[in-house]
Amino acid sequence: MSFLSQTLARVKPSPTIAITNRARELAAEGRDIISLSAGEPDFDTPAHIREAAKAAIDAGHTRYTAVDGIPELKKAICAKFKRENGLDYTPAQVTVGTGGKQILYNALMATLNPGDEVIIPAPYWVSYPDMVLLAGGTPVAVETEMQNGYRLTPEQLEAAITDKTKWVILNSPSNPTGAGYTREHLQGLADVLLRHPDVWVLADDIYEHLVFDDFKFWTIAQVEPKLKDRVLTMNGVSKAYAMTGWRIGYGAAPEILIKAMSKLQSQSTSNPSSISQYAALAALEGPQDYIAESRAVFERRRNLVVAGLRDCPGITCPKPEGAFYVYPSIHHLIGKTSAGGTLIADDEAFATALLNETGVAVVFGAAFGLSPCFRISYATSDEILADACARIKGFCEGLK
Ligand code: PLP
Question: Could you tell me which residue ranges the Aminotransferase class I/classII large domain spans (predicted)?
């Protein structure tokens, strides 16, 4: 009898681990490595948020709290949804968890039965399909196209829905492409969903505040109020306020789902960290200057990276609307051989050769379900990004 569970066997080990390990090995050998694989802002959490956490400790907020969030934070989350998204939720329709990740996990665990399908536009955040598998469901990846801005189209959504579809996951702006859905794009998808009343929508809005140029963020419950009673609007403080380590995410949905998620959380982690909840409260209620400041920095970096990659022979790089990722295609480079003698048979070979020969670590597209591409996270300094782009250009120029 196997010691490890069959549930675990359904989940693949992360394909990004190999490249991360290789980058570590090379760095340990003294090689000059630039890692563009991290999915987190490189800034410190704003000072007033850190101070609020210290004050929470001194005020004795160091004990268990209500399982799915302190009332003050739930109220602040309702105010945030009203202020920024025009959405009316009551505290009973809100849940707080250990990161947006736990919110997604709770929702899938609380709702999926064997055979239930979850539509996931590809390329996708690596955790979606594996969470669906852990919850016993079936992920249904739908490949988006670069010429559609890596956005799921209404036709693709319609074609993917079956009588087993329980959820569709929307992530705008997206990890890994940075693609953002406009109000019109979301309305197109909403029109399809209105014809399928049993399908719920999981709106992962974690990159809401990282949008550039004149792109305006919308979330589907706001675009189509008739869907609101089957939408889970998920968000968190990780990316908006440089708080990845604090582990606070939240979601708003009809009470039936929120109660089920809370029940699950009560028997697994209990409340998210009390101190982090007070920090998140300060983030949502305090000065919001950090958001505009970080947005300006990320926009500048996006422009730098897109221009740098467009200068690389054989790379096609779309200009994303948001987040801090670009997802260029290497379609034209497949079949070539690197200066170091590696055949670029697929995007994994590209990423491996790029790392070995130039020291730049990127994540290959197969990890996100759409090839041949790679993802760069530009959450690092302009100097490092310029250096990385120059190395990638040299690598591409050396391909025969
Ligand atoms: N959703 C997406 C698309 C992400 O990229 C991430 C983190 O990388 C998360 C959700 C979860 O973020 P957290 O658990 O830190 O709130």
Answer: 32-392
Pocket test for ligand 1, best of 98, 124, 127, 219 (most atoms within 8 A of CB): 127
**Cα of 374 to ligand 1 centre, how many Å?**
19
Find the CATH number of the domain harbouring 298: 3.90.1150.10
Note the pLDDT tens digit of each residue in 43-63: 999 999 999 999 999 999 999
Ligand 1 pocket residue status of 236, Cβ below 6 Å: yes
The verdict on residue 49 lying in a domain is no
- Asked whether 180 lines ligand 1 (CB < 6 A), one says no
Contacts of 274 (CB under 8 A, 6+ apart): 56, 61, 62, 63, 64, 65, 70
Cα(292)–Cα(299) distance, rounded to whole angstroms?
A: 10
DSSP E strand stretches across 102-230: 117-122, 138-143, 165-171, 200-204
- Residues 100, 245 within the same domain: yes
If asked whether residues 99 and 244 sit together in one domain, one would say: yes
Q: Count the domains in the chain.
A: 2
Whether 364 and 331 map to the same domain: the answer is yes
C-beta of 204 in contact with ligand 1 (< 6 A) = yes
153-194 pLDDT per residue, tens: 999 999 999 999 999 999 999 999 999 999 999 999 999 999
In ligand 1, which atom is closest to the CA atom of 39? 8
Q: What is the pLDDT of residues 300-354, one digit of tens each?
A: 999 999 999 999 999 999 999 999 999 999 999 999 999 999 999 999 999 999 9
